[in-house]
Amino acid sequence: MALAKATQIYDWLADHEGEISGGGCYCSELKLILWQQPKVS
C-alpha cells in the first residue's frame, strides 16, 4: 500500500515538477499538499 502511494506521488511529481518549483501546491488527485524545501548544505 505505501509503496503504491509512493509510486503515485513520484509519478505526479514527475508530471507536475514546474508547479511546485516556487514553493508548494495542493495535489487534489492524491489529496496531499506538496512543497519544495531548499537543500541545506
TrEMBL record:
Protein name: Uncharacterized protein
